[in-house]
Input
Amino acid sequence: MLKGEGAWPQLSLGFGYYFINGKVSLDKDGVKAGVDYSSHTMFGQVQLSKTFLFFTPYVGFRGIFSKNSTDWAWSATDKRISDAASYVGAAASGKGNASSNWGDNFIPQIYGGFGLKISFLAINIAGAYDFKNSIWNGNFSLRFQM
Output
């Protein structure tokens, strides 16, 4: 967006979307269980960065929206397991689901880090804070680039 000439930092805007879905199931030793899930995620971010020779510090803000759905089921097909569950007052089978809408899951994050580019080697060290869930995270990457 802004090139960051002279003393001014570079301003970048980013937008994205990704989708994931899948199914996990188990049928072993008289127990069946399965989970079916899908997640749509959209994000927007704004970032400031400035390159000094081979060192680039950056800081940014990201907003993430997601829409999710999950269905699950389980059952005990072995009579011994279902009898034991009945004895302790537990269900021998069941199912359920959970879902959320776009507005339910807004997650604001602040992130920052720095990159080093030395010849063919690129190193990136970064961290982020998720304000909604109070979670810190970090990452390190080492790449060979041409």
User: Anything to note?
Assistant: The first helix runs from residue 79 to 87.
